[in-house]
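User: Hi! Is it possible to get a structure for several chains at once, not just one? Here's what I have:
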Amino acid sequence: MTKFTNFLGKLDSLDRRIIFLIIAVVVLIPLLVPLELPVETTQLTEDAFNALDDLPQDAKVLLSFEYGPSTKPEIHPMAISVLRHLFSKGNQVIVMCLWPDGLFMANEALELVARDEFGLTYGEDYVNLGYRPGNEAVIKGITKSFEANFSVDSKGVPITTIPIMHDIQTAKDVDFIFSLSAGYPGAIEWVLYAGDPLQVPVSSGNTSIQVNQLLPYVKSGQMRGIVAGMPGAAEYETLVIEKIMHRKGLLTEKALTLLPNFQERRNATKFMDAQSIAHLVIVLFIIIGNISYYVKRKNQRKY
Amino acid sequence: MYIGILGAWIAVFLTLSILSYLYEDNVFYKLAEHIFVGVSAAHWATIAFWNQVQPNLFGRLWPRAEVASLEGFNKFWYSIYHGLHVLFSKIFPEDTVNGVLYRGIGDQPQNMTYIFAFILGLFMLFRLIPKIGWLSRWSLAYVIGMAAGLRLYGYMSSDVIGQIHATMLPLWTGNLGDSINNIILIVGVLTGLFYFFFSVEHKGALKVVSRVGIYFLMIYFGASFGFAVMGRISLLIGRFNDLIEYSGQQYGFATPILLVIMIVVLIFTTRKNKKEAEEA
Amino acid sequence: MSKRYAQKVVNELEDLGATVTLGELKWGSHVQGQNTYYRWVFYSFFTPLSATMFALLAFFVASASYRAFKIRNVEATVLLLAGILIMLGRVPLGAYLTAWTQNISWLSWLHLPVIQEWIYQYPNAAGARAIMIGIGLGIVGTSLRVILGIEKSFMGGD
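Assistant: Yes, the chains can be modeled jointly so their relative placement is included. Here is the combined structure:
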């Protein structure tokens, strides 16, 4: 027993490189050997999903990309799922970016979903207005005039000539604002400068780190649900498959043929196994760290 | 195709270089770090210039116009454009269509008020010249004043009044569970706010209120910690997924080859440093 | 691609009978266009560097959890418990480990996602709201000071 307690006491000064190695191994193994744990959806993700799902077919959604490669694993699967959800219902999507990297993320997502999967027409079914620096000033600007802030889209085409923008003068003319946000500017600015003043419904898909800051907006109804980090992305992917599959009569023909693809390409869901094991290991680290700390203190008091 | 494979090898090399920092600070990490700083700065500058400055600033000062139809002030104004075209022809293009000469950028209407934005922008850059660096304070004052004005209303309306309004919940809703939840929310917000109220000393009953507030705040910080761990692990999973993808045959087994090379080099340099340290 | 290589491709296509027009990309469209060198540099250099820099923090978070997260008092215990319940309840493993509680009605509240959701939506939301109101009041106060000229530190003044 003494040997064991001495060993526990020594664990307190374990070389951190061993901890790094353990973390690397526990993240890597589930990626190579999936456990396929089922994903349970949470209320807030369902609220965000239902808020978009309840939109009528002719609704126009403003989708704002505020993330970059550093947070792509968390938010990009959400972006793809949201686009699939909206296009499968026949909604039109207006994309804009408040982060410069968001432009590349938006192009990537639109190329995959709008162009390759759904074969939609740029300018009629969706448009990418591009990136504008200015943070919340851009949001404030589009509450007055889209054309003043985005005179041309990301391809240099004047927005007055783009069919989807014909009856969109200000942010008030869109039916929903969905922000894919990793920081500043992001969902908070959309709520403060567009959602609340114009009373346009807002929801958001965020990194896990930002989620807790946004929770008060969700609880107060200023945001309609929230898709929280990679678990949220996995939940949204699951909802897109489950709920849409049960409403085949309401889907566009193209969406029906793509359903098996959606089932297969659920990136966030695949990653949840690794996330689960890593969390368990970190919890074990905390418990072992505390046990060894107390054993070490006890041994020191003895002597 | 080959450029794609080269890109994959570069991506794997840079990823493994950054991760090598976990072993110890080394030449691979230093190289990757410096590349990151350079590429990031260049990327932001490029995107900001070609997405905003060129089309939206210069494009509004000098929208595309037929040279022959220019008159009055615009004739002089576009002659300045021509001078800029001679210096920077790619940024200030001119073109001829069916024998007609056009100068300018884009098709939006001309808006000369953007000259003030241009001047303030230049003032901001003067910060780099010590003698006239004081001019940048004008630009800074504009930006900070604008931000203060925007935030004053936004945060007061949404964060303060909106949240206080949302905290006004019924103590009894008819359902015991909902009522308890509402009471927890109200008590948590009030005691949490009280913890930061230092105008009265926290003693006696007020000390109890403050302590309750601390516990609610600790729950918030604990949840934030949990979410932070979740976020970081998610990003790591994304990187590992890319490394696994690039270890395949179609990318020339980039990951395993580069990993082995790096491990060998790191072991060699560690032993060499150890030897030198012992000799010293 | 370079002009010479592009002309070579055009010549080959025209030999096959296609009608091809060669045009120069508008300057500035290099940040937009597909298959441009800019995009290649973005995905080969910037993306892995940026993503890995942030991913590196996962290891340090784990190491910090092991070394620094010690239960020294009641507050730290509350923080720790909240963190652990959120971490386990948010992932499928937490649901899987406590799935058996769903079959027993009086134990169904012990299902980790249920506990996690309650902590997240009520006590945690209360703390978050308190912090948000506090920060909001601070921002309003500071903004007023800037507008009224009382706050001059950003200009290098007192």
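The longest helix of chain A spans residues 267-302. Residues 57 and 90 of chain A are 6 Å apart (CA to CA).

User: Great, thank you!
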